[in-house]
Amino acid sequence: MTIRYVVAYDGSDAARRALDHAVGQARQSGASIVLAHVLEWSPYSFLTAEELAERHKRRNQEVERARTAVVDPAIKAVAGSGVGIEADIRYGHVAETLVTIAEETGAAQIVIGRTGHSTMVTRLFGSVAGTLAQIAPVPVTIVP
Description:
Blueprint: E1 4-8, H1 13-29, E2 32-39, H2 49-78, E3 85-91, H3 94-105, E4 109-113, H4 120-125, H5 128-135, E5 140-143
Parallel strand pairs: 1-2, 1-4, 2-3, 4-5
């Protein structure tokens, strides 16, 4: 059975640190990486059929843009490391979607970067890392 680490990746410096950490850990343990990029999406159920079709078209464009601008460069950067890596791009609530990806892939842990920002919004509503630490079914590594 292959060990997998899910790495939350959005192209930020914090995400890059998380990916670098996961690559180092994967090298030592023989694990592979699932690079998870989650796009927030709120379904508007009150839209007309035409509006929904337009949103679906835009959604496909956003996934392709995320793949070419964020995910593919990260995979290319890891390619020479000897660590297996695959990508998973989805829409949804970030923390909940990362948990779903971890469950579906049988991941041993989730790795996420900490941005270091401590705003009022984060204090009121929580951060993705904080939410993951509470709801994840596997260990969560928060990389500073």
